[in-house]
Amino acid sequence: MKKILAVLLFISAAASAADKKILLRGSETSFTANDHAVARYQKAAGDRADIIVARTQEEFERHVVDAHGVLGGINKEQFAKAKNLEWVQSSSAGVEAYTFWPEFVESDVKLTNCKVVQGPSVADHALALFLALARGLQTYIPDMETPTWKSRAEAPETIRELQGMTAVVVGVGGIGTQIAQRLHGFGISVIGVDPRDIPVSNYVPIVVKPDAVDRVLPKADAVFIAAPLTPESENMIGARQFDLMKDDAYFIVISRGGLYDREALVKSLDSGKLRGVGLDVTRPEPLPEDHALWRFKNVIITPHMASLSEAANGRRLDVMVDNVGRFAHGRPLVNLVDKDAGY
Predict the structure, then answer these.
(1) Which among 25, 133, 161, 203 is least buried, having the fewest CB atoms inside 10 angstroms?
(2) Mean pLDDT of 149-169
(3) pLDDT, tens only, 6-24
(4) Long-range residue pairs from 291-297, CB within 8 A, at least 24 positions apart, any chain
(5) Dihedral of CA 59/60/64/68: which sign?
(6) Is 83 exposed, middle or buried (0-12, 13-18, 19+ CB in 10 A)?
(7) Which among 299, 236, 233, 289 has a CA at the least distance from the CA of 264?
(8) What is the DSSP letter of 158?
(9) What residues are annotated to the active site?
């Protein structure tokens, strides 16, 4: 009788054990890994998955060996050890850390990201850079430290009205679409550039493929770069593309620094061709202190912070929690990345 009871207890314990192990990397202060977030992950997973929190590199290395899912990223060495891995959830929209990595791309491991959720915040930032440059604010803000009141006669000649402009938005995804919506509100005509068959709309009435970018750049008063970084898109804006742009065009980069040639951009600025440049992303990051881009008065550089906002953080966590529940219960994941395409 005791043996039968022991067997039944063993079977019961085995049946109640979680099916999956999901490994979370992060600090207690991170909104994706604090106690509140961990509680939400575990509630979504229920008894189908255990959420294991790795606060140190050593903890992550120890648990990744038998993890079925990873939240927050994994490198090549860790991937090679993760024999049970089925899914990786990126906390960002960009996933080039994986798509430039053949072993991961060719594996059966699913990759999901947080595209779209940061679209409003990044689009707002893109417009903030553009508006600041169009109104010459970069020349006035430093004067507040003095303080100095410039007369109207000293207003920079670069001040421009937006209505009636044409903008080219490269990358009409979750971020590019929201940039286009905001530009439309200012009376700016938008031409989209995207490899996918994007349905035209009031915001983006014209969409061309990337091989036609050289054809539309000469029409642009402003160029916004919102595309993902892939082997095909790397350095897609180089010396030829800058030469094709209108004199006095604006150039705003909001997605990845690897999409444009930095030295070609410097040469274009040196020649006086571009009216203003806004960069939230560079390559490398941070941009070296002695780099030439820092010296131009018509360049605004921000430290890759366009995606930051309380609302965006909440949406990002919602996606991650949703996918934890889906993975644990065997349902289709959202924001699944096409690893071959890179987005």
Answers:
(1) 161
(2) 85
(3) 433 333 333 345 789 999 9
(4) 291/262, 292/266, 293/262, 293/265, 293/266, 293/269, 296/269, 297/138, 297/139
(5) positive
(6) exposed
(7) 236
(8) T
(9) 256, 285, 304
Cα–Cα distance, 341 to 211 (Å, whole number): 16
The one-letter amino acid at 150: K
What pLDDT score was predicted for residue 154?
A: 73
**How many angstroms separate the CA atoms of 142 and 258, rounded?**
29
The whole-number pLDDT of residue 158 equals 67
301: part of which helix (H) or strand (E)?
strand 299-301
Give dist(CA 325, CA 71) in Å, integer: 13
Distance CA 28, CA 223 (A): 39
Nearest to 187 by CA among 202, 177, 175, 206: 202
How much of the chain, in percent, has pLDDT values that exceed 90?
75
Amino acid letter for position 135: R
Q: Look at residue 200 in the predicted model and tell me its pLDDT.
A: 85
- Nearest 5 degrees, angle CA 57-CA 62-CA 67? 105
Ordered alpha helix ranges (H), 187-309: 213-216, 239-244, 262-270
Please give the model's pTM, rounded to 2 decimal places.
0.85
Q: Which two tokens stand for residue 242?
A: 């800058």
* Size (the chain), residues: 343
Residue 147 gets the label, from left (phi > 0), alpha (psi -120 to 50) or beta, of beta
- Mean pLDDT check: name the lowest of 2-6, 73-77, 225-229: 2-6
pLDDT reported for residue 13: 39
